[in-house]
Amino acid sequence: MAIMGTFSSFTTARLAIYASQASLNVTGNNISNINTAGYTRQRMDLVSLYSTGAGKYKSIYNTNVGYGVMAKGVTQLRDPYLDIRYRNESAKLGDNSEKLDGLTQMSRILDEVGKGTGEKEGFGVIEAQFGSLYKALQNLEVNVGSPEYDDLVRTEADVLATYFNKASQDLKDIQDIKSKQIYEYAADINNLLTNIRDLNEQIRTQSIYGDSALELRDARNMSLDKLSEYLHINVEYSMERIDQFSEVEKLTVTLAGSRGYDGNPIKLVDGIFGGQISFPENMPLVNPDYDPMAINRAKEETRRAAEEEYPLSRWQAGIDAQLAEERKSIEAANAADQEPWATKIKTAIQEALDALPGNATDEEKTAAEEAARAAVEETRKDTIEAAVAKKEQELWRDWKPGIDKQMAEERRSIEAANAADREPWATEIKTAVQKAIDALPDNATAAEKNAAAEAAKAAVEKTRTETIEAAVTEKEQELRKIWKAGIDAQMTEERKSIEDANTADQEYWVKAVETAVQRALNALPYNATEEDKRAAEEGAKAAVENTRLKTIETAVAEREQELWRAARIQRQGIVDDAVQKTEDAMVEAGGKYVKTQAKPNAKPPVAAKYTNNVEEAITYPNDKFLIQIEPLKDRRDRVMTDSHTVSKESEVMELDDVILYGKFQAIREMLTEEGEYASQKDIDMDPNAALKRGIPYYQKALDSLAKKVAEIFNEANQLPAKDVYQSKNGVFVGEDGAPVKDEKGKLVTVDRIDKAVTEADKAVCLEAIRRSGCKNPLYEFYDGGVLFSNNGNNNDPSGITAANITVSAAWANGSVRVLNDKRPDTYAADGKTVIKHSSRNDNIRHIISMFDKQLDYYATDVQPDTAAKLPVLRGSFREVFTAISGTLADDAQATTGKVDSYTITTLNLENDRQSVSGVDLNEEATSMMQFSKSYSAACRLLTTIDEMLDKLINGTAL
Amino acid sequence: MAMRVTTGMAMNLYRYNLQNSTAALANSRNKVISQRRFDSFAESPTSAIQAWRIRRAMTNNESHQKNTNDTYSRFNVAWQSMDKVTNALVDKDGTFSDIRAMNDATAVAKGELGHVMSNTAESIIQVMNSAKYGDHFVFAGDDEMNAPFTWSADGKTLLYQGIDVNTAPVDPPERTGKEPSWVPASGDHSLPANMPKKGANKNEQAWIDYYNSDWARLDALANEHEYVDLGMGLLEDGNGKLINGTAFDRALPGVKMLGYGLDEDGDPKNAVMVLKRLGEIFQSCDPDTGSLEGDNGKGESLLSEATRLMDKLRASKDYCTGQYTTIDTKGHFLIENKERMETNEDYLQEERANLEDLDPADAITQFSWDYYCYSAALKVGTQLLSQSLIDYMN
C-alpha cells in the first residue's frame, strides 16, 4: 500500500467534499446566469492529486494511490475562433443594416411605386406631376393662345417645382438626422473603447494577483461584440511581460485590414492604452503634396541604407583588436604560472627579509614581514578599487543611451502635460494676461495692452519653462536613484568577482594543480610505483590544464558576445539617428499644412507656405465627416509609446473611407458619398468612391434633373433680347425712344446682356427691358422669358437645384408666358402691315418633344470638380426620375439581400457560440445530480474512514 | 459529440423565425389589401421600371386621346361650315340661281338674283369667320386668335389676313440649282427665314423680290401648317425641326378652303369672289331690258364674263367640295387615330395589370398560408420553454 499518513484519508474525503461543493457552486452560478447577457458558462477544473515524491520508506511495489481530487480553478468555455468570425460578420451586418436604413428612408421619398391618389393612383407623385405638366402642355398646344391654358401649365409647373423642393428638403432632413446620429455612434464607440481599455486594466491587475477575472472578460467580450458592429475590428491576445518571471495576457484591438503610418494595423486599444475617435471641428488645410507614406518610405529607405552602410562587419576589426587585448588580460589572469597576490606577498616578504641584515632580531623580521605584507595588501586593494571603479564607469557608459532615451521621453511627456494650450497653463496665461490688462489705466492704447499681454504671457511662459525644467530635473534625480540602485546591484556582483580574482591567498591554478596532483596521488594504491605516481601526476596536471584553457576560451567567448551586443546597440543607435534625421528633414521640408494664403499686398509680401504648426494653419469646417483616432492613452492620460515605432508616441491618425468598415462607416458613407459625382480627389483617397452612393448622390441627381428641366424650359422660352427689343447704338430704348435703365438707374445695353457676368444681372436687365423696352413690330407677340428661377422673387435661372427651383417671378405674375413660337411675324408687301401668326405652336410642340427626348445628364452640370466624364444619367425627364429611384431600389434590393444573409450568418454564429458558451438547463441539471451524488459519496467516504479508524483506535486493543 | 443546443439558442432562433413569420404575414396582408404585386420599387425593380414605362405611355396616351378629340371637334366645326359653304354653292344659291338668271331674265329678277348672289358670297365669309372652336377661328391658319377674312372698306376686296385673295400669282424665279441658300426647298410654300434685304446678285435679288410680293405671302398663308401631337411619335431632328409624319397638321387656312389668286383669264379663283363678281354682273344688267350685253369695262360683254364665270363658279364649287372631302378624310383619320389610341390604352392597361396587379386568389391563398405559419409559430412559442430535467428532479 501506498505510504500515506493515517489521517490522510480524511484529507482525500475532505478534498472530495470540497470539489463537489465547489463544482455545485459553479453549476449554481451557471444556472443563475442563464439569462445574463454575455455570460459564458463556467466549469470547475478538477484534477487528480498525486504526489510523486518518494516516501521515506519507498516501496518496491508499485501501489501508489492518489491523494484525492483538487479543484484547480474555474475556466470559461469559449471558442475564440467563433468570436473572430462572429465579429467579422457583425461588422458586415452593421454596415449593411445601417446602409439599408438610409436607403429605406430615402425610398420613402424617391420610391413612388404604388403612390398617388384618385385619378393619379399608382402614378406616383413627382412622376405623376411630370405627367400633369405634360398634359397641360399638350392642352396648351391645341389651345394655343388661350391664357387659361398657359395658367394651367404654370400651375402644374409650380406644383412640380414644389415637389422637387419637398423631396430635396426631405433628403436634407434625413441627412440632418443622420449627421446627428453619427455623433451618437461616435460617442458609443468612445464609451466602448474606454470601457474595453478600463476592463483590460482591471483584468491585468487581477491576473497579476492570479485571478482569472471571468466576469470581467464576459463584460469585455460584450463590449467587443458591440464595438464589432460599429467597426470591423481584429482582437488579438498576446502575453505582456511584467517582470523577469511572469507575464500577463494583453488584449489588442486593431482596425481590421488597416495600415497605419508604420505599416501595422491601426490600434484602437492596446492593453491598458485606448484611443478615442473624434471629428475635428475644423480640419487644417492639408498640403496636397504631403504624403505620410512617403515619409515612411523614406524612413525605411534610410534605415536600409544606414544598415547597409554600417554592416556589423564594420565592428569586426575593432572587436578583434579589443578581443586580442581582452584575451591577453584573461590569459594573464588565468596564467598557469601567474603570480597571484599570495606569491607576491611571499616574494615581497622574502625580499624584505633578505634586505634585513643578518643579525636582525625576530621582532625586526616580523616587523619587516608585516610591512611588506601591508604594502602588497595596499596595492592589492588599490588594484581592486581601480578595477571596480573602471567597471562602474563602464556600466554607466553602457547605460547612457538608455538613460538619455528615457530622459528624452520623460521630458517629452512632461512638456506635453505642461503644454501652453492645456490646463492649467491655458487658464494661467489667460488670467495673467487679463490681470495685466486690468492693471493698465483705462486709456491704455491697444499697443500698450498688447505689450502688457505679451509681457504677462512671457512671464507665465518663463514659469512654465522653469516648471518643466524642475520636473525634468526631479524626474532625472528620481530615475537616477533607480538606475543607481541597478548599477549598484550589478556592481556588488562585479566587485565580488573582481575580489575573487584578486583574493589575497589564492593561487587558483597553481593551487588547483597542486590539489589535483595531490588527489591523484592519494587515489593511488599504497604500493604504487614511482612511474605510476608520475603518470598520475601528469594526468592530473593535464586535466587541470585542459580546464584552464577551456575557462579562458569561455571567458573570451563571453566577452566576444558582450562586445558584439554593444556593437549592435551602437549600430542601432546610428541607424535610428539617421532615420530620425530623415523624418525631421522631410517633415520640415514638406510641411503638413498650409499656413496661410499668399498676401501679395502685405509689406513685405507674404507667400503661401507650408508649416507643421497646426495652430497656424488655415482650417475649413469638417463637413466631410473626417474622423481621426486620437493617440492611445492610459487612464492617467499618459500617451502610449508605440512598440512599432520604437521610441515614438502613438499619433493622431485619420480614419479614411478605405480604413473604416461597419455601421459607423456606413452612416458616414450615407452622409458623404456622391457616387458618380465624386471628385478626383475623393477617388484618389478611395478608389471605390464613384461606386458608393449616399444621400448627396441622390440630392445631386435630383438637382441635376431639376436643373435640366429648368434649362430646357428656359432655353426654349427665350429669344435674344436684341432680336426682340429695339435698341439704338447698342442701348435698349422704350416707346418714347428713352434709354432703358434698370432699378439702379444703370443703362441696359446689348453688350451688358451679352457679356453679363452673372445670370442675376442678366435677369435684372431683361426685367427692365420687359418693363420699359419697346418690342420690334414683328415680335409684338413675344412674351417669352425665364420660366424657372432659383427664387420665386426673381428671374435668375443660375444655380438652380431641386431645393430652390421655382416658377419665376415674371411667369408667376403673367408678364412671361410659355412662348408659342420663336419665328417673327411677317410684313405684308407694303412693308408696314404685320401679318400675325397668333396660333403658331411650334415652340410648345418643341417643349413637348423635349419631354420625351433622350437627354444626357453630366455630373459636371452640378459638381464642377467631378471626375466622371461620361453622362451619369440618360433619358427623358420622367425616365431619369425613374432611373434615380431605380438606382436607389437596386441598391436597396441588393442591400436587403445582404442584410438577410448576414443576419442569418450572424445568428448562426451566435448560436454556434451559444452552443459552446451558453448555459443549458438539462446539462446543468445533470451536473447538479452528478455533484450532489459525488458530495454524498464523499461524505460516506468520510464516515467509513471514521468508522475504520474508530475500529483501529478504540476497537483494536489487547 | 453532437452540437449542444441550449435554451438561449432555441430562443434566438425562435425570435428570428417569429419575426420572419410576422413580416411574411404583414407582407401578404398588404398585398391582399393593395392588390399589387409589389409595393415598393426595391421589391421588384425590373417590373417597376416596366410599369413606370407603361404608366408614362398611359399618361401620354390619355393626352393624345384628348388632343385627338379636341382636334376632331375642330374638324367637325370645319366640316359643318364647309358643308354649309358647299351647299350654298351647289344647291340653293349658286347653280340654281345662275341658271335662272341666264334664262329667265327680267331686269328686276336679274337684279334680285345678283343681290342674292352677293349676299351669299358675304354669308359664306360669315360662315368661314364664324367657324370657331372655343375662341379659336378654325379657318384662320396659324392666326386663330383673329378672324381670317375681312372686306376692304369699299366692300369690294376680300382680304385674307390683310392680303387680297385676288392677288395675281407671281412665278418664282426659275430654279437653276444655284438659288441662295435661304430659299426654301421646292414645294415648300413658307416664307424664308433669314432673307437678306438686298440681294448680292441678280438671281438673289429676283428671289428677294419674289418673296416680298403679296402673292408669295398669300401663298405662304394658304399653305400654313399647324402641327399637333396626336401620338404619332412626335420627333424633332437635330436642328429642332419637326420630322414629317410624326405630328398631325390641323391647319385649315380659309383661303385655301375657298381658293385664292387669279387664273390665266384673270378671273378670281376664290369661290366667294366669283360669286360676288357674278352678283355684281347681274346687278349691273340693263335696268330696262335686263340685257347683259353691256361692256364690263374691260372690253368684254357682261354676258360673256358671266358665262365664263359660271364655269369658274362650277370649278370653284368642285374645288371647295374637294377641300370639304379633305376635311372629311382627315376627320376619318382622327376617328381612326382615336380608336387606335383606345386600343392602345386597353393594351397598356392590360400590360399594367399583368405587371402590377395581383391575382386575388393567389394573394388570399398566400395570406392564408402565411397566417397559418404565423399561428403555428405562436403555438410553438408557447411550448418553446419546455420542461427540463430540473422539473423531474426530486
Radius of gyration of chain B: 38 Å
Q: Kindly name the structural category of chain B.
A: mainly alpha
- Judging from the principal axes of the Cα atoms, what is the shape of chain B? elongated
Count of strand segments of chain B: 7
Largest interface, per-chain counts?
A: A-B, 72 and 73 residues
Biggest β-sheet description of chain A: 4 strands, antiparallel
**Proportion of helical residues of chain B:** 55-70%
Helix count of chain A equals 23
**Strand fraction band of chain A?**
5-15%
Per DSSP E runs of 2 or more residues, the count of β-strands of chain A stands at 21
* Helical amount of chain A: 55-70%
Describe the structure.
The complex is a heterodimer of chains A (958) and B (394). Chain A is an alpha+beta fold and 958 residues long. Chain A contains 23 helices and 21 strands. Chain A has a 4-stranded antiparallel beta sheet. Chain A is elongated. With 394 residues, chain B is mainly alpha-helical. Chain B contains 10 helices and 7 strands. In chain B, helix 2 (45-92) packs antiparallel against helix 4, helix 3 (94-103) runs antiparallel to helix 4 and helix 4 packs antiparallel against helix 8 (271-283). The interface between A and B is large, with 72 and 73 residues.
Structure summary:
The complex is a heterodimer of chains A (958) and B (394). By secondary structure, chain A is an alpha+beta fold.
Tags for this model:
heterodimer, A: alpha+beta, 3-stranded antiparallel β-sheet, 23 helices, 21 strands, B: 394 residues, two-stranded antiparallel ribbon
Question: Secondary structure elements and their pairing?
Answer:
The complex is a heterodimer of chains A (958) and B (394).
Chain A: H1 8-32, E1 42-49, E2 68-76, H2 80-110, H3 126-142, H4 147-208, H5 214-230, E3 233-241, E4 247-255, E5 267-270, E6 273-274, E7 277-278, E8 282-284, H6 292-309, H7 316-333, H8 341-355, H9 362-417, H10 425-439, H11 446-501, H12 508-523, H13 530-589, E9 593-594, E10 610-611, E11 619-621, E12 627-629, E13 653-655, H14 663-672, H15 680-685, H16 695-716, H17 721-724, E14 727-728, E15 731-732, H18 750-754, H19 759-772, E16 788-789, E17 806-807, H20 809-812, E18 826-827, E19 834-835, H21 842-851, E20 855-857, E21 873-875, H22 877-917, H23 921-955
Antiparallel strand pairs in A: 1-2, 3-4, 4-5, 5-6, 7-12, 8-11, 9-10, 12-13, 14-15, 16-17, 18-19, 20-21
Chain B: H1 7-34, H2 45-92, H3 94-103, H4 107-130, E1 132-133, E2 136-137, E3 149-151, E4 158-160, E5 163-164, H5 202-211, H6 214-222, E6 227-228, E7 248-249, H7 254-258, H8 271-283, H9 302-356, H10 360-382
Antiparallel strand pairs in B: 1-2, 3-4, 4-5, 6-7
